[in-house]
Amino acid sequence: MGPESQGLALLRDQVLGICAGTAFVMVGVAAWVLAAVRRRSGVRVFVWLGAWSAIYGIQELCRVPAFVAALPRTLQSAVPFVSVATAYLVPVVAMRAWLELTHGLLRVLVKWMTAAGLAIAVAGIGTFLVNRDASAFMLPNVVITVAFLLLLVTVVALPTRLARRYLVLPHKGVLLAGTLVFVIEALSANLSRSLGHPSPRIFGWLGFAALLFSFGYAALQAVLANERRLQSIEHELAVARRLQLSILPTAFPELGSVRIAAAYEPMTAVAGDFYEFIPVDRQHAGFLVADVSGHGVPAALIASMIKVAVQSVAAWAHDPAELLRRLGGALQGHLRGQYVTAAYLWLDTETRTARYSAAGHPPLIHWRAATGTVTRIESNGLLFGVAADSDYPACAIPFDLGDRFLLYTDGLTEPENATGEPFGDARLEQVLRECQAKPAEELARALLAAITAWRPASVAQQDDITFLIIDVFKPFERTPDRGSNLLPPAHSH
Question: Within this chain, do residues 303 and 202 fall inside the same structural domain, yes or no?
Fold first, then answer.
């Protein structure tokens, strides 16, 4: 081959090298864009896939003399460092990408191998910076890479049933094909190099491309399967939310001279808070608020059980202590390690007397219109789920026209501001005083607005919020067109 032919071949190889390196960098950028656009769970695999492809592409570009010569002088001096760094980091990033598709024992092994690879990379790059020795830790780097490839091929080649114990993949056929192509190319390249006949670089690029794209395809399949699963869960949660809302009261008790407002703000799609009315006649009714420990579906299931249990003890509506004792007994054995706090208020507008009892619940608030004072009433027994048979003390509370009662769960007072300070009892009382002349539903809106203003906009709601406001109004305050019951806030149940 003449000098001119050799020059053309060299130029062709360099052009191909620039094209291949650029293509892998662009694939990496495309993977990052995909991850940024989707912003859903599971897209981290595309972040690491993008890093893997981009670092490999940079490594290939640094091997092309024409590309290096075209760089500014300040960047040319950094090429040796970049070459060494990419040689050490490509296996580490590859293992980190694979980690996103593993679980079980394989995930543990890959984590340890990634940590070992990272330690080798840090040592190798550090040694190069100190004494310009690029090969000091290259042998351990090759060993950890080969060990990882052997582990990978073994797991991917397992029967589908066994492979699913270690890989988060709905299908592994494409991944198996791409992995085998890469391994076969790598083995043949090393063998031919040892025999003095190095294979063209294009075969290495094609082998890596086969592995990269098969990995990307498998990752995309896993992410789509995960999204379908999440969509199914979201649909089921929406159904569960509708069902949970259906167990809450749809109307207020028909009580003379009483206004009622209710607020129900779940932290998630479903909640562990619950409230119920037990109306008897136009002068008597019971009001129950309960709070299940925890959040989400498990707490919501317990809340649904409370609905059924309340119906079975409604005959003791006039006796708060007995009702709570029997309610706790009905739930005992079904809570599965969870606990429930509850508060029950019995209202007798004929004698203007209320009776109250609670199970480990925040105190009942009684606003006395005549004196403009707030009284916190605690009459607590044990939480439901602590003991099989507990007694619950009850207290009698005389009230007058214009008085107000507030039953609530702890989600009303626990929201924190930017400094970690809870909303607290003092601010709750402040809102009550500021809204003492307002009807029940306006007070409910004011309480929710105060909590929203207190909690930073960037902080999500941390607990379910439920409360009942019960106003005993004077006869001349009755609104003819609305009767004795006002509607709850528009955004509450």
Answer: no
